[in-house]
Amino acid sequence: MDIKSSLAAQQYAATRPATAPKPDAGGGPGNAFGRAAADFAATLQQGEDVAKAAMTGGADANSLVTALAQTELAVETAVTVRDKVVEAYQEILRMPV
């Protein structure tokens, strides 16, 4: 190995961390969708937990109705977002190239 290729390899290794993506880069759209999906899953899990507790007598009817309403709202929101994404995709497909 000659000196020039050794120096090039060292310089590449030194600049590589600067070009690597940051693991938590902030408020990008992918991060926002990830948080929304995690919140959706947590809402569904909370609704299931309250429903199980209500069946065993550990929760009252009011908390069950509130949890079911939150779950219903989360599912309706997810369906609305999905419909908008499909609509946007279909609109892109209709665009002339």
Strand residue percentage: under 5%
What gross morphology would you assign? elongated
Q: Structural class given helices, strands, pairing?
A: mainly alpha
Mean pLDDT: 83
Radius of gyration (CA) equals 25 Å
Largest sheet: none
User: Helical segment tally?
Assistant: 3
What kind of assembly state do the chains in view correspond to?
single chain
Helix proportion range: over 70%
As for the number of domains, it is 1
C-alpha termini separation: 50 Å
Order of helices and strands: HHH
Low-confidence residue ranges: none
- Number of DSSP strands? 0
3D structure, described in words:
- By secondary structure, the protein is mainly α.
- It has one domain (27-94).
- The protein has three helices and no strands.
- α2 packs antiparallel against α3.
- It is elongated, with a radius of gyration of 25 Å.
- The model has no long low-confidence stretch (mean pLDDT 83).
What is shown here, in short?
The chain is mainly alpha-helical. The protein contains three helices and no strands.
Question: What is the topology?
Answer:
Elements: H1 3-19, H2 29-55, H3 61-94
Helix pairs in contact: 2-3
InterPro entries: FliE (IPR001624)
GO molecular function, one term: cytoskeletal motor activity
Protein name: Flagellar hook-basal body complex protein FliE
